Amino acid sequence: MIIQFITSFIASAAFGIIFNAPKETLVKCGFIGMAGWSVYYILYVRDVSSIVATLVASLVVAIISQFLAKLYKMPVIIFSVAGIIPLVPGGISYNAMRHFVENDYNTAIQLAAKVVMLSGAIAMGLLFSEVIHQLYQKVIRRRKETTALEKD
Amino acid sequence: MEIRTTPTYEIIEVCLLAGKIMLSSGAETYRIEDTMTRIAASYGIHSSHSFVTPTGIIFSMDGNDPTKLIRISERSTDLHKVTKVNSISRQISSGELTAKEALVKLKEIETSNLAFPIWLQIFAAFIASGCFMIMYQGLWTDFLVACLAGGLGFSTLVYLHKLLEIKFFAEFIASLIIGAFAFIAVSYNWGTYVDKIIIGAVMPLVPGLLITNAVRDLITGHLVSGIAKGAEAFLTASAIGSGIAVAFIFL
């Protein structure tokens, strides 16, 4: 399992280089990728369905990315991209495409549906954390407004 | 009403250039629209409309000012530029930069080459391919083969992308080479599982980010750009799939 963590760290940081993330963020990118993949892997080993595991992992990635983006005043995408790279259903979409061109349409459609579900799960995870973030900000602002009113 | 000190065309130009850099560097649609309206607002224009699609940006303000359109023909992922534009937009919002200064700085960013050297990118693809192969439960004995296949595929892609205008063929040939290399390596007993090696090696080419962004755009209501990004992702995926398939047919 430790090997999985290390390889996901290296893979995410390497993707940071391919996507040309700023130098000082590469290690953070690696850590976020590792966090996402370890959540996914631990859930996957415990027989949780891969869609739920992906959803939870991408939620974790998104929350950490939001936090880091606030902390370092950088766009969220830098951290979230590297984080979701290990979760992206690259292998399955490759398999789907391969079955398509081999004229095995039944398997291909099944796999393609799975790709859509998995990428939907990733997007849902990312959006969900954004919604939480917005709600949190709104609540804080309202609280500040009410306290200001009470003072008056 | 506040008095505008900057001419409108300069504001439009700053907004459009910021949007153009962000879009061609792979930022999210909603963030680009947000940045453009924010820049406009901090220069005193509170009602502006931006419409961002993957192939072009339309930006318009209320009143008699002209609507402008910018065409984007090439998109890649360059997060460093996104960061730089973001920090400039922050500076504009806090009133540190005038439109003229912002324009100069944005032009600098547009022409600058902040990318990592090519050899480092190829090395990153090399290492990432091997690591992905391990993450998909491959064998350590296949590690080097997957690395080599991935590095070879990625460098082919980079080289052909400069040579050919059409991205589809660059991706097709890159994955053809990956498939052929993996197949030959396994038939000479250098590797064990062809599938695992190929999946690891194509990961640097796979449009995973594009698929996720497409779904995300669709959910948040950016229907046009969601569909367009989905189409782009589908094209890339089919280029990779058919490249591998051709390799399998001929070998």
TrEMBL record, chain A:
Membrane topology: Multi-pass membrane protein
Cell membrane found in the keyword field: yes
Stretches assigned to the Threonine/Serine exporter ThrE domain: 4-132
Protein's cellular compartments: Cell membrane
Main localization category: membrane
TM annotation in the entry: 50-69, 76-96, 116-136
InterPro entries in the record: ThrE_2, ThrE_Dicarb/AminoAcid_Exp
Domain of life, per lineage: Bacteria
Keywords: Cell inner membrane, Cell membrane, Membrane, Transmembrane, Transmembrane helix
Family: Belongs to the ThrE exporter (TC 2.A.79) family.
PANTHER family the record matches: SUCCINATE TRANSPORTER SUBUNIT YJJB-RELATED, UPF0442 PROTEIN YJJB-RELATED
Protein name (database record): Uncharacterized membrane protein YjjB (DUF3815 family)
Organism: Peribacillus huizhouensis
UniProtKB/TrEMBL annotation, chain B:
Main location, first listed in the record: membrane
Keyword check for Ribonucleoprotein: no
Compartments in which it is found: Cell membrane
Keyword terms of this UniProt record: Cell membrane, Membrane, Transmembrane, Transmembrane helix
Residue ranges constituting the Threonine/serine exporter-like N-terminal domain according to the UniProt record: 14-250
Transmembrane regions: 114-137, 143-160, 172-191, 197-219, 231-250
Membrane topology value: Multi-pass membrane protein
Pfam family, any one: ThrE
Family: Belongs to the ThrE exporter (TC 2.A.79) family.
Name by which UniProt lists this protein: Uncharacterized membrane protein YjjP (DUF1212 family)
UniProt xrefs under InterPro entries: ThrE-like_N (IPR010619), ThrE_Dicarb/AminoAcid_Exp (IPR050539)
Organism of this sequence: Peribacillus huizhouensis
